[in-house]
Amino acid sequence: MHCWIYKSSRKQEMYLYLADQDGYDDLPEPLRQGFGKPSLVMNLELGSDRKLARVDAGQVLEALRVQGYFLQMPPDLEPDMDYGDRP
Question: What is the DSSP letter of 70?
Fold first, then answer.
C-alpha cells in the first residue's frame, strides 16, 4: 500500500501516515487542530515486512485500511540529567 507521511507543525516527532495524499482535509477536526499544518516528509510503499523506526508496519497498514490514517505519537523522551556528585 502506498502512503504519505507528514510531520506536525505543532508537536515535534509527531507523524501522520495517510492512505490518500489529499486525505488531510477529511480527517476529524480535533485531529487536524492538534496536528497543525502538515509538512510532507516522504511517501513510500508500505508492506507488512517493511521495518519502520518506531511503529509496527502491520499496525500502520491496518489503520490505513480501516480509517485512512495512522497517527504516530512522539516517544516519551527524558533528557539525560547530570546531577553531579551528591553527598
Answer: E
The structure's pTM equals: 0.82
**Number of domains, the chain:** 1
DSSP string, 8-65: -SSSTT-EEEESSTTGGGGS-HHHHHHH-S-EEEEEEE--TT---SSS-HHHHHHHHH
Distance CA 46, CA 48 (A): 7
* Boundaries of domain holding 47: 2-72
| SS3 call for 67 | helix
pLDDT in tens, 16-59: 999 999 899 999 999 999 999 999 999 999 988 888 888 889 99
